[in-house]
Amino acid sequence: MNLVKFVLILCFVAVTGCKEQKKTEGLTPETVVVAVSFDNPPFEYYRDGQKVGFDVDLAEIIAKELKLKVDFKDMSFDSLIGALQSGRAAFAVSAITPTGERAAKVDFSEPYKTSGIVIIVGKDSPIQSATDLNDKVVGAQLGTIYETYAKQELSQVLKNFSVRSLNKIPDILQDFKAGRISAIIIGESEGMSLIKAHPDFKMIVIPSTKSGYAIAMPKGSPLKRDIDAVIKKMKKNGDFDKLEKKWLQG
Question: What is the pTM of this model?
Fold first, then answer.
């Protein structure tokens, strides 16, 4: 094999390798694939057939800063990490809380929002705190920290307590309205959205459960540095204040 042919082969391997890397990271020169679970207002949901929410705007701002277009992929929350590991998305944004278990599988951006854990019950319910959930069945979204909290924390201190885990928040709501569960365990901002939409609901804050939301990416993602830089810029220039006002305070 002559030297010229050898060099050409190396160039071909290098180029095709880069293309494959971009493919597995959910990236093209024009587009970034973003995994989202569109059932979680006010962060990500459908309104009049359009994808909207706090996290949707955040993803679009990041993509604009990176000079890319967003290709949102709707999937169940418990599928988001797997989508990143398999290379079907470049990043995921769905009010995701970094945990040790998740951090072993994916990388996270800097946190961009904090929120606590709350209980949603009927307005006339006698339930006033987590300690009133003895002998109750609660609903939580599969794969979330709220499911983990209910199963690992509440179950340790409550009697005859059980958790019904479902993929989608609308399914949890349906069970709640049908009386199959007595309460919903969910994030504080999401809980506020629920009681705004359902005046017959009330929200009970569980103390000392504050945690942060961050963007998840495949391990070693080249986007982490840029995404962190955009988040820092948004915190400094007031963009997050605008998103808070638009989606969480309106």
Answer: 0.88
